Every structure is written in C-alpha cells, then in structure tokens.
Amino acid sequence: xxxxxxxxxxxxxxxxxxxxxxxxxxxxxxxxxxxxxxxxxxxxxxxxxxxxxxxxxxxxxxxxxxxxxxxxxxxxxxxxxxxxxxxxxxxxxxxxxxxxxxxxxxxxxxxxxxxxxxxxxxxxxxxxxxxxxxxxxxxxxxxxxxxxxxxxxxxxxxxxxxxxxxxxxxxxxxxxxxxxxxxxxxxxxxxxxxxxxxxxxxxxxxxxxxxxxxxxxxxxxxxxxxxxxxxxxxxxxxxxxxxxxxxxxxxxxxxxxxxxxxxxxxxxxxxxxxxxxxxxxxxxxxx
Length: 287
Prior knowledge:
Elements: E1 4-14, E2 19-28, E3 32-36, H1 43-50, E4 58-63, E5 66-67, H2 72-76, E6 79-83, H3 94-102, H4 110-119, H5 133-144, E7 151-155, H6 163-176, E8 183-187, H7 191-197, E9 200-205, E10 208-214, H8 215-221, E11 223-227, H9 229-234, E12 240-245, E13 250-254, H10 257-263, E14 268-271, H11 274-283
Parallel strand pairs: 3-8, 3-9, 6-7, 7-8
Antiparallel strand pairs: 1-2, 1-4, 4-5, 9-10, 11-13, 11-14, 12-13
C-alpha cells in the first residue's frame, strides 16, 4: 500500500486565457490538505482535472499509486466528492438517491447512510428540489461518507452550512482521518475551517503553486510587522515576503515573527492568519 493517496505532478491545463501551470503536491495518508487561493486561481480546475472531469493538458495524477485515467473506475469507487452545488436529480428523494448509489459503489453501507440522514435531519422521502442549499450539501456529505471512501474531495463544500453544522462537519472530517489511512482535499474560502483541522496548506495563485507546506509551519512562524518607515528600512529584506504601505505605517509579512520581534523590539509583531498570508501574497508589494 502506497503511503500517498494522491500525487499531482506538473499538472498543466491550458485554456488559452488561463493556464494551470505545472502544479505539484502530494497528499499522504491520514492528513487533511487545505487548497486555497483567490477566485480564479485554479482551485476548481485542479479538482476537475484530478477527477478527470476536465482533461489535463500535461502532467501526471496518481491515486493510490494508480493513474487517474487508466484506473478511473476503481479509483472513483474509493473516493467521495462534495461540491458547493447540488449534483443530484431534483426529483429524487434521499432514499431514491441511496438506492441509486448502492448500485454504483461496491461498498455502499445502508446503515451508515441512514444514520447520516438522521444526524443531518434530512427527511427520507422529501424531494431534493424542496431542500435548502444547506440540506443539499448535507445530503452530499451523507453520500460521500457512506461507501467506505478512502479519500474525500471537498470543493467549497461547507459554504452553504450554518456555523453549527460546519463545526459538526469539521469534527466528522477529523474523525475520518484518525485511522491514518484516509485523507481529505479541502478547497475552501473559509480559511478559519482550515486553521482548525488542516495538516497541510497548498496555495495557488494565478494558476501557479506558491507553496505547499505544513499548516503549523505557517501559523507558528509567519508574522505581520507593523512599523514606521525608519524601522521598515532597517528590516532584513531576505525575511520579507510582501509588504503593504498604509497612511502612517508599513505592514510587513515576514517568515519568522519571533526573529523579527527580537531584532526589532520597537515594532509591533503579531501572528499571521491564513487569510493574512493570502492577502499579502496576492495584494502585497514584493521587494
């Protein structure tokens, strides 16, 4: 059994006006990978290529050590997918969807599916067209979690949920990876969710990978320095990732906030959130 559930190597998709450019990252077993980036960065293109819903231009994608196209049927039997939009027929009820899915997935589990319908308070015989957006998302999670999937792919999957249900889903995802054989790829704009549960963060900007690293390395090390022009001019430029000039001060994203706090005691140095890091990379000025 390979230690990596997903390997993306030099993935390229050329649309002409947009290029996903030689994207690479690896998802080991037992982890949650957060996929972040601004709108149009290439996150959904990446997921669609991984799922072979869009044909890649170049590169290699391996699930469980197998090619994602050659072994597509076997691979998709082992993964669960939740998008932010409903992909079930509106005229179906949850029970009818369960019957349909039981004919698709080799390891479909009716008791698990019924338990999730109950936990998510989804009526068995109500048609999907009468569900709210949040109910449709919960139905998609119920399906994804009911066929012994080894890997979950989530594309803005929690955006339609209220904070309480989102928190419940995050707990489910943490439980899902506890056996260290399952993993999750979680693309979302709600970066606070990733701060709670992600092990790794991959950041895409304009079709290129900016970094793929441990989340704790980002949150434990990165910082924002707030200072005047004199201190800014004295900063070690090698430590600066990006900066933003405001009316009366500079705000600077640095790689090592503890080092910055020690070297520049008159500056204000604070931890950086994932949102902060994204904003500085996308909108900040480079040295």
